[in-house]
Write a sequence for this structure.
């Protein structure tokens, strides 16, 4: 009897140790994932991006057009009136942006939002096209990017509050501003997440280029690609740790839920061959959106390549959508 009791105690201790080790490993892995993905000090867009599946012809086209656009953009920046501006976020961060005043008498404005681990200069190429149509432009650095402060990347969810403040900044310059929100990748998710908020009537349209449905969906795909792991239990743990460290869970950071609640027209753009923010997401977003909408899936384009496949067609469609409203 004593031997049985002793063996039972040993088994209980072994089970307890295994469970403690499992929980400790899960917490460690979840914390590592948060640090890897959204900590400013370690996050890297290159590190998390899958190998593109686009063709050599697409790559050559994108490289050639990117060089052409970059030269035109640099010339535009050098000849434009630019002012560096800053605002304070609701949690006390200093956020920095550039204002390009194309026409002081124009009430047309665009706020152009960059992607994950990017910076405001990455949106200058998009800004130039708007400026050529008489738009004044604001290109902000998102929190924890570029010259803006912050320890953790907001993945669009924290950034939506910052975008609302940037909208207020534009209205402080021009109370009659007619504002377009245009975002690429995480910037696309940001403007979609902003769409479901209580926004001033001055916001006229949203342009989403390759944004994701939710942080949960995006990180699920990336965890599977990078680490060959499923959602349970590590992603759930990482999401809970993110709430503690960064202020949001991966599940709540949902563009999909926000576009269900918007009345602002949205133009959805996505590359047909996007394997970073999977193309399937744009169809879910388009179907969920209850406002006026349109969809442009660019044949052959990978992630963030839609503009560079055919820039004239890209902006003909963008301005066609805006002007139809």
């Amino acid at each position: 009897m004593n031997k049985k009791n002793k063996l039972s105690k040993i088994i209980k201790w072994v089970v307890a140790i295994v469970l403690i080790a499992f929980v400790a490993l899960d917490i460690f892995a979840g914390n590592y994932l948060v640090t890897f993905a959204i900590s400013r000090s370690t996050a890297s867009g290159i590190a998390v991006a899958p190998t593109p599946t686009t063709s050599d012809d697409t790559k050559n086209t994108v490289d050639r057009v990117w060089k052409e656009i970059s030269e035109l953009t640099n010339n535009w920046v050098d000849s434009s009136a630019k002012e560096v501006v800053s605002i304070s976020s609701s949690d006390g961060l200093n956020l920095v942006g550039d204002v390009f005043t194309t026409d002081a008498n124009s009430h047309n404005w665009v706020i152009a939002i960059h992607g994950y681990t990017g910076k405001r200069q990455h949106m200058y190429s998009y800004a130039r096209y708007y400026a050529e149509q008489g738009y004044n432009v604001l290109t902000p650095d998102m929190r924890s990017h570029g010259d803006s402060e912050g320890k953790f990347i907001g993945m669009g969810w924290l950034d939506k509050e910052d975008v609302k403040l940037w909208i207020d900044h534009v209205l402080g310059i021009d109370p009659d501003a007619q504002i377009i929100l245009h975002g690429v990748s995480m910037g696309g998710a940001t403007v979609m997440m902003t769409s479901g908020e209580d926004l001033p009537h001055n916001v006229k349209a949203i342009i989403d280029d390759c944004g994701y449905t939710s942080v949960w969906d995006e990180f699920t795909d990336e965890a599977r690609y990078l680490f060959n792991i499923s959602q349970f239990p590590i992603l759930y743990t990482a999401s809970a740790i993110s709430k503690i460290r960064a202020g949001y869970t991966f599940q709540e950071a949902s563009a999909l839920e926000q576009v269900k609640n918007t009345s602002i027209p949205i133009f959805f753009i996505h590359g047909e061959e996007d394997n970073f923010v999977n193309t399937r997401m744009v169809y879910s977003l388009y179907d969920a959106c209850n406002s006026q909408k349109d969809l442009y899936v660019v044949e052959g384009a990978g992630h963030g390549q839609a503009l560079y496949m055919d820039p004239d067609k890209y902006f003909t469609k963008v301005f066609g959508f805006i002007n139809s409203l």
Q: What stands out?
A: Residues 164 and 274 are 29 Å apart (CA to CA). The chain has two domains: 1-38+218-251, 55-214+253-323.
